[in-house]
Amino acid sequence: MFTLYTASPSHAHNASVDEKIEFPDLEQDYEFVALRHPDEYPFNEGRLVSGSGLDIDIAEYEEWFEERHVRHSNALHSRIPSRGPYLVGPMARFNLWEFFRPFHQPSI
User: Fold this and answer.
1) Which one, out of 28, 46, 57, 85, has a CA that is 20 to 30 A from the CA of 15?
2) pLDDT of 28-86, one tens digit each?
3) CB-based burial of residue 62 (10 Å sphere; 0-12 exposed, 13-18 middle, 19+ buried)?
4) SS3 call for 33
5) What is the DSSP string of 34-103?
């Protein structure tokens, strides 16, 4: 059976060093933001919703969100001014399924 320890001695050494590293407990509240559509998968249209109760038309985006350029990145960073940063994408859609119709929920 192949294990990390049979891969090479350097990998085994790295694994033994890594297991000694102490990581602090970190819990952070995240606000998830995603589109919601009443009849289909919300990919291109719908309302913008969040786990903190936001439910707006996409045309209201600039009223609720702030985008700014930061020196270390070419991408714009977006945040909700009164609440801070938020998460989007598959993780947000997964965590916001309670906002979607039941037929959008896979059986997991």
Assistant:
1) 28
2) 778 999 998 877 777 788 899 998 999 999 999 999 999 999 889 888 889 999 888 89
3) exposed
4) strand
5) EEE-SSS--SSSSEEEETTS-EEEGGGHHHH-EEEE-TT-SSEEEEBTTTB--B-SHHHHHHTGGGS-GG
- The tokens of 75 are what? 């991408």
Q: Strand pairing of 76-79 and 47-50?
A: unpaired
Q: Are 86 and 96 in contact (CB under 8 A)?
A: no
User: Which residue, among 24, 33, 25, 26, has the nearest Cα to 85 in the 3D structure?
Assistant: 33
Residue type, 74: N
Residue at 15: amino acid letter? A
